[in-house]
Structures are given as structure tokens and as C-alpha cells.
Specification:
This protein is an alpha+beta fold. It contains 2 helices and 6 strands; from the N terminus they run ββααββββ. Strand 5 and strand 6 form a beta hairpin.
Length: about 130
Amino acid sequence: EIFVMSTQAIYTFVDPASGDEVSVFKHWDGYPRGAATFLQRAKELAWPFPRFEADEFAAAFVAANKTREGDCRLMADPSQDWYVDYKYRIGFAHGGLVVEIFERRADCKYVLVDARNLDDMEVLGEVA
């Protein structure tokens, strides 16, 4: 029997104007480099910046990155963390995406991780 390890993540898209949030679970490649790829793909299907709406960008994210069953899904209850490896909060400011990247540690708490390797993303804040 072969077991495949997945790096699971939750992407929460935040509308800067309304504060509305939409969360999407992605089953694999949730590490920061994979996340950057998924977000770049979504940008190609979303409204051109500076227009950014959380629900529209989340829809673009799913459309651009869902490849098979169970791979990518909307979260009915975004307060659940499903013990994923990473959480991302994505919004728009200063003409581009602003991304907070959090990694789950052994104690199941999420902490800010360094993301300087991502081309067009800023890492801000920390999990409260």
C-alpha cells in the first residue's frame, strides 16, 4: 500500500472594502511556493487589479486550480481549521495581493512564517 503525503492549506480571501471573507480548502501543494503558483493562476481568471472582490477571486482560485475530486473545495464553516499545514489570508492593497502566511506547528498553533521567496506577496501580521 502506498501513502501519498499532502501539504494541505486553507486560503481565506478578504475583501478590503467590505471585510467579507471566503475560504477555500486545497488538498495538496499548500506550501508557500505552491500557494504562489495557485494565486498566480487565479489572477489570470480574476478581475484585473485594482478591482478585487473576495468571492470573485476565490471563484477564480477554484476554477484555475481544481484538478480532481476533493482537491479544492469551498468551506461552509471557515472557522474550522481542519489541521491543515498552512493558512493563507489574501487581500488587496497597494496595487497587488497582500498575503499573510501561517504554518501549523507541533502544538497545532499557527505562526507567521517567512515568505520572502514569493515574488509579489507581502507577509503581514500574525495569528491572534
